[in-house]
Every structure is written in C-alpha cells, then in structure tokens.
Amino acid sequence: MTTPENHRVIDQRIDRVVPLTTPALLLHELPLDDELTSAVLAGRRAVAQVLDRSDDRLLVVVGPCSVHDPAAALDYAHQLRAAADRVAEDLLVVMRVYFEKPRSTVGWKGLINDPGLDGSGDVNTGLRRARALLLDVLRLGLPVGCEFLDPITPQYIADTVAWGAIGARTVESQVHRQLASGLSMPIGMKNRPDGSIGTAVDAIRAAGVPHVFPGIDVSGTPAIMHTRGNADGHLVLRGGGGLPNYDAASVAGALELLRAAGLPERLVVDASHANSGKDHRNQPKVAADVAGQIAAGQRGIVGIMLESFLVPGRQDLDPTRELTYGQSVTDACIGWESTDEVLAVLATAVRARRSPHPHPHPNPHPLPTPA
C-alpha cells in the first residue's frame, strides 16, 4: 500500500509509470499457431543437432545488427529465405532478429524499447511490432535467433526463437546465467569485451545447471522460477580487447578451455565486433579464414555469426532526413551481395570438410573484400 509517507522514500527518480501489457495478452493477440509452433521446435532441434554434430552442417546466424524497420527486415528475410534454400544441404541458416541493443554508455536501445526511434519509449508498441515481425519471419520458414538482454522480455517473444545469445556485456551477470538456464532454446555465450573467454566458459557451466530465481510468469505475475538447466550452451568468440580471436590458434585455445572445463568442444565465431576490428568490410575476411579452417577439417567450429542487411554500412538516426531503407542504424553491416557470397564460400567449406581429404588452410577460394 502506498501512503503519503511512502512517497518520501520510493520512486524518487521515476518520472512516470506506464502499465505494461502482459505476456499472455500479447501471445493471445499475436498467437503462435500449431504450424509455427512445429517450425520453432524443428528449428531448435536442428540447431541442437548441429551443436552436437549429429548434423554436420554449419550454423549461420545472419541478419541486421538490430532491427529498426520491420518492413526492411522482412524484405531481407525474403532474400535470406531464398539463399538459405540454395545452401540448405550445407548450412543451417538462422535469421538474426535482434530487438535489444546493449549500450556501453547511451544511444538507441532497440525496437522494443523505442520503436519510434525518437526517445518516446513506447515499449508496449515495441513488443507488438517485435512479435509481429518474428511471426512473419517464421511464416517464411526461417528459424529465428535473438539476443536476450532484459530478463522480462523473453516471456513475450522467446516462444518464437530457435537460437539465443547472451551478450558480451551481460555474460558475467548472474541474472542472465539464470535466465539462460531456463530458456527453451540453445544459448550461445559471448566472450567478454575485454577478450576474456574464461568468463563465457563459466557462464556455460552456470547455465547448464538448475537455478531458482524471481521472475514473471506468462500472466505477468511475479513468480519464482525453478529451472532445469540448459544443456545446449556453447561459446561464441567475438574478439575483444582490441584483438580478434577467430584464427586457428585462438580457436584451438578456446576449445582447450572448454575441454578443461568438461564442456562440449564446440564454438561459434562472430565475424563482427572485435573480430572485424569494428569494420564491416572485414567480415568477409573473417568468414574466409573460418571457412579455411572448416575446409581443413576443424570440427570444433559449429557456427558463424554475420551482421548483414540490404545496404552495407550504417547511418545515424537524424530527425531532419529520411533514413536509407535497409541500412543499419547501429553497427555497420555487410550488404546483401556480400552476404550471398559469404554463404556460398561457407557452404563450399562444409562440403570440403566432409571429404576424405580436406583442403589445407588457408581457404583456397578467399572472398573478395567489398567496397
């Protein structure tokens, strides 16, 4: 109960409080029907099979750094679906559909938090737009990958997701490790921004066991969550401390850390972030090196991540001008043409890895550097 005296000690820095729609209401308004439910479950199974190597394809999580325009993201999804069909025998393509943008300081925090791109913070609208896009992507037959940042939002969207990530800035957080232990899909743990891999390895171990923590249930009611632990945790190498960690020596060292911790020796390479030197034009170079390792027989690499959109580069949010359609407003992405080339090279590498005489590293067919 709030009394006049309470107001002297609570919410002193809260400007206003807006009621939040419940997960149950949003799931009722934008339901996951039986057909889409089957698609999500099939996507999760496929990712898990790639992780445990019962499926020898390569997982490729590819898409915009962070979705700001659902229409452009859906156009991208149509092109990705066609490309995914072409490489389906060799690559398991999952569309990156990220809605929450972690920030070191300040900036636009993503479609869920600010769908108007104007600081208005209409979270209820953001959640609806995000879920509607996820359903549209699923209807195209593409599995979806998301990063989970806020511990509440998974109740609104996680039922649609086949692969999830805990980011570099939150991998050390107990809250996110507990969250990952209860999520229903495989979860990749990124190494810290300073390059620490051991922290991510610890996170995989922590998320693999049961936890008890406070949260909300689907009705929006505060609840105590008792998790079973997530056996599908895995490492994501994204570079750090100004240095990349996608090269063969770094991959071998990371696999050794997993082995020493008694964890499955499997990892995903993030071709962006510190691995690309924060220059999107370097992502194809990273992919080419990873492809070379795969072609040479490296089976510890089970996946790769790419930041990709319709138009290469990035743009600033500027209320005085119209945004370029299909170009990122957060991290710079490679464009569609480069994306298609990267997928083809990765597929070729997987076929080489299957052969009895894998190609020597480096990749004999390197990718061109995009302009």
UniProtKB/TrEMBL annotation:
PANTHER family: PHOSPHO-2-DEHYDRO-3-DEOXYHEPTONATE ALDOLASE DAHP SYNTHETASE, PHOSPHO-2-DEHYDRO-3-DEOXYHEPTONATE ALDOLASE, TYROSINE-INHIBITED. Pathway: Metabolic intermediate biosynthesis; chorismate biosynthesis; chorismate from D-erythrose 4-phosphate and phosphoenolpyruvate: step 1/7. NCBIfam families: aroFGH (TIGR00034), PRK12755.1 (NF009395). Keywords: Amino-acid biosynthesis, Aromatic amino acid biosynthesis, Transferase. It comes from the Bacteria. GO terms for cellular component: cytoplasm. It is an enzyme of class 2 (transferase). It catalyses: D-erythrose 4-phosphate + phosphoenolpyruvate + H2O = 7-phospho-2-dehydro-3-deoxy-D-arabino-heptonate + phosphate. Residues 49-342 form the DAHP synthetase I/KDSA domain. The lineage of its organism: Bacteria, Bacillati, Actinomycetota, Actinomycetes, Micromonosporales. Its EC number is 2.5.1.54. Belongs to the class-I DAHP synthase family. GO terms for molecular function: 3-deoxy-7-phosphoheptulonate synthase activity. This is Phospho-2-dehydro-3-deoxyheptonate aldolase. It comes from Micromonospora phaseoli. It holds the Pfam family DAHP_synth_1.
